[in-house]
Amino acid sequence: xxxxxxxxxxxxxxxxxxxxxxxxxxxxxxxxxxxxxxxxxxxxxxxxxxxxxxxxxxxxxxxxxxxxxxxxxxxxxxxxxxxxxxxxxxxxxxxxxxxxxxxxxxxxxxxxxxxxxxxxxxxxxxxxxxxxxxxxxxxxxxxxxxxxxxxxxxxxxxxxxxxxxxxxxxxxxxxxxxxxxxxxxxxxxxxxxxxxxxxxxxxxxxxxxxxxxxxxxxxxxxxxxxxxxxxxxxxxxxxxxxxxxxxxxxxxxxxxxxxxxxxxxxxxxxxxxxxxxxxxxxxx
Amino acid sequence: xxxxxxxxxxxxxxxxxxxxxxxxxxxxxxxxxxxxxxxxxxxxxxxxxxxxxxxxxxxxxxxxxxxxxxxxxxxxxxxxxxxxxxxxxxxxxxxxxxxxxxxxxxxxxxxxxxxxxxxxxxxxxxxxxxx
Lengths: 284, 131
Fold this sequence. Notes:
The complex is a heterodimer of chains A (284) and B (131). With 284 residues, chain A is an alpha/beta fold. Helix content of chain A is 19%, strand content 25%. Chain A has one domain (2-280): Metallo-beta-lactamase, Chain A, CATH 3.60.15. Chain A contains seven helices and 14 strands. In chain A, strands 6-5-4-3-2-1-14 form a seven-stranded mixed sheet. In chain A, strand 10, helix 4 and strand 11 (198-202) form a beta-alpha-beta unit. Chain A starts with a strand and ends with a strand. Chain B has 131 residues and is an alpha+beta fold. Chain B has one domain: 2-Layer Sandwich (Beta-Lactamase). In chain B, a hairpin with a 2-residue loop joins strand 4 (97-110) and strand 5 (113-123). The termini of chain B are far apart. Chain A binds chain B through residues 94-97, 132, 145-148, 152, 175-177, 185-188, 190-191, and chain B through 1-5, 7-8, 10-12, 14-15, 110-112.
């Protein structure tokens, strides 16, 4: 499983020289499975760069949306394969409110917010709610579950080739619960993250910033650590960086995280996810 | 893994000071908070998950004649059957004897359907009797 980060920022794209190291595009992660299955996690502004990099004719594309907050869908209209009439794209997303995923996305992809309507996209696009049970795309087994965030929000787990990736970009599992004293089955997202080889997890806030943002649906560093240790994640990448955190601030977060993970042990490795990062998960 | 609706409900009732229980879709009592533990006289960690029959045999609810109430008359049954909050007044066996309580049941239904219910109850003042 090859993983490429096209957008790691939360909330709003954050251009500017002070953010070029980590990157300013909103969430988009490309997952390429060894059998050729092509999965894209979220469609933030980072998906624009991915769309231009993809070779046409590479087979079906599957876009897995965690939720429909703007920072996770704002790149859809700028994803080049949507304008290729030979492209076959399935957009998966959370169930919600008695309206189809297509209807919900059309609120954004329609006038006056958009010059192009969903029905005008030349590609062969289908929209599907994620199923309640695990499902397969090629050699990948996927599972999704609603997680603690504002509004219906999914986390995903992708297993292939003996490896497991967990994607929880917007997640506040520590809200109202002492995770260290709580069985895993009572912690949001735990089942998706358990024993993952790679955990991509929301870390929008430093611990001191969190006090002003409790209940906003995002995590502080200490809670990410607690969650990752509890779940037994081998490697954790901190994700959905606050727009107010420039490269210097995220360098500081990286140092704090490294100290935290190494001091407490059993938490595997940790790093700050950066746009352009590429890594490979393979069973040893 | 518990559904998010139950996880968040447990987080909420762990935090509040009103006595509250959480039941799953099979009506098993899967959690109750400290305020409820104060009423019944034992913490959840000691009691653990209870089947509805076990709970009813131990704590009630009881009708005016002291016998267990028919299950279909309980707020939880009404809440599930009619997909709406339901309320009721009845007696339960508490640590300090049989007491009268008022209970409200709220069904926890999400995009994936019904997952259980949150039950909130409070002793009615001045109606305590010896058990």
